[in-house]
User: Which sequence fits this backbone?
């Protein structure tokens, strides 16, 4: 089991806390909000110029904690410039400059070198971006998908879709361009870089769980700052809080998708040396406690999409353990899972009850209602969208209708009814993740994306069996969690889901499993 550097994780989590606190202070102060966005963007430029890897980690850190990317934003005439877009642009600009500069230097070395000098020049390129990109074996699957993405963009303009809708629909896909600097940075497979990437991810996931529990405490205790916190969550799009029928706060943070990935990382890390009799030993219990904190965030989210993805990935994991270890080991793993689940419920109840016993709402009734309810407005709206969406898909099933394509349907969602009393609603964004990909990219484009997912999952499994490192099984399980969640809540066309694809590629690629 890999040793966890909690000192570095604590430092990074402190940084996350400061950034979120500044976001809270600035969300109603436009000048401060804009100034902090500029400062953070300049900071990304500076650290990226110093070492590209650090800029990439900063970008990922924002992705882990920033949900929709609006922790800071500047209001513009045509909309908003969010922090994520600003620092992505800053980082990519620095990478482009450094990459071109490196290409020029390499060319000069080659032209000016002969004999032994030429051989030395070749060796000096061993850690170059270009060499790492050439060695990136998974590039062909990203290129195939990129072809359909570009075609969907052209297709959207050719069909006369509104330009603002095309931009809003397409801009998230630009996040995929990060795979180029990611391959350039991690293509060499340096272990120190991979370790720093893991630490950054674990810190982000732990902060997300802690943030979810802090919000649970605030909203279950009717804190005096709860109205301002609610307003901050809504305005920065960094989360949602809605009461359930039993008056329990449902705290959904879009970035909690990373809590699911981290849960499987914890689960698989425990399997390498876990024995039932040692469950309460310090190292084992620490991983169990972390897993419970990740699981508590998923439970508090009350997201059935997360829960469906969690169940599918758990079933996949148990089958893998049976194949890789034994049936007995699978039973022990099941007991570990039940233990983490029990501990996660204990954490939730402890946070909601501390420091005095009170009843903020009926969590048990809310949980059971969320599992069994099928007639609430959001669910009904999703199902009413389905026939209208499939009708539009049938019009151009193979090549799709391009970015900016819209669907009109009748919704019973209270938020839509507030704006349109008739319930008739036209939108370009849909909760049926794969059907949206089908509508925009066509069946061939959807197949290209599924091929990329399949190759990553297959690669993680093959590498796990080959090396015995459980991290790769965890990545495969995490990708299945993402894939199933995307059925009902779109993530594969959003930076949050794209980030998981890129992160998995960074961790799997050095082991040459494509």
Assistant:
């Amino acid at each position: 089991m890999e040793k966890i550097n909690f000192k570095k994780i604590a430092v990074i989590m402190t940084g996350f806390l400061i950034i979120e606190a500044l976001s809270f202070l600035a969300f109603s102060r436009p000048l401060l909000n804009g100034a902090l966005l500029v400062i953070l963007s300049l900071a990304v430029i500076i650290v990226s110029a110093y070492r590209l890897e650090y800029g990439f980690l900063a970008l990922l850190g924002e992705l882990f904690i920033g949900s929709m990317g609006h922790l800071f934003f500047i209001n513009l005439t045509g909309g908003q410039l969010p922090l994520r877009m600003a620092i992505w642009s800053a980082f990519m600009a620095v990478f482009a400059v450094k990459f071109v500069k490196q290409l020029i230097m390499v060319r000069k070395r080659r032209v000016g070198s002969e004999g032994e000098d030429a051989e030395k020049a070749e060796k000096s390129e061993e850690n170059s971006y270009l060499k790492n990109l050439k060695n990136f074996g998974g590039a062909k699957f990203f290129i195939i998908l990129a072809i359909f993405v570009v075609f969907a963009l052209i297709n959207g303009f050719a069909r006369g879709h509104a330009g603002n809708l095309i931009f809003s629909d397409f801009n998230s896909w630009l996040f995929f361009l990060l795979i180029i600097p990611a391959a350039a940075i991690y293509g060499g497979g340096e272990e120190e870089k991979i370790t720093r990437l893991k630490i950054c991810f674990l810190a982000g996931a732990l902060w997300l769980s802690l943030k979810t529990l802090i919000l649970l405490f605030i909203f279950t205790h009717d804190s005096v700052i709860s109205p301002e916190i609610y307003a901050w969550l809504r305005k920065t799009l960094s989360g949602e809080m809605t009461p359930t029928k039993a008056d329990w706060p449902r705290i959904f943070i879009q970035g909690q998708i990373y809590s699911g990935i981290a849960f499987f990382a914890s689960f698989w890390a425990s399997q390498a040396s876990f024995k039932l009799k040692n469950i309460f030993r310090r190292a084992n219990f620490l991983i169990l406690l972390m897993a419970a904190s990740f699981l508590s965030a998923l439970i508090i989210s009350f997201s059935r999409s997360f829960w469906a993805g969690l169940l599918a990935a758990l079933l996949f994991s148990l089958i893998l353990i049976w194949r890789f270890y034994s049936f007995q080991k699978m039973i022990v793993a099941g007991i570990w899972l039940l233990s983490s689940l029990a501990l996660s419920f204990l954490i939730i109840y402890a946070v909601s009850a501390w420091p005095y016993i009170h009843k903020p709402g009926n969590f048990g009734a809310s949980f059971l209602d969320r599992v069994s309810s099928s007639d609430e407005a959001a669910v009904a709206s999703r199902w009413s969208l389905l026939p209208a969406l499939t009708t539009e898909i049938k019009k151009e099933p193979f090549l799709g209708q391009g970015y900016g394509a819209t669907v009109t349907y009748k919704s019973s969602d209270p938020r839509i009814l507030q704006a349109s009393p008739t319930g008739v609603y036209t939108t370009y964004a849909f909760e049926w993740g794969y059907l949206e990909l089908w509508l925009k990219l066509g069946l061939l484009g959807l197949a290209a994306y599924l091929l990329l997912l399949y190759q990553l999952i297959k690669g993680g499994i093959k590498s796990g069996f080959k090396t015995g490192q459980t991290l790769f099984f965890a990545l495969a399980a995490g990708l299945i969690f993402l894939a199933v969640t995307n059925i009902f809540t779109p993530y594969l066309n959003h930076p949050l889901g794209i980030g998981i694809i890129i992160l998995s590629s960074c961790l799997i690629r050095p082991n040459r499993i494509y």
Notes: Residues 121-127 have pLDDT under 50 and may be disordered.
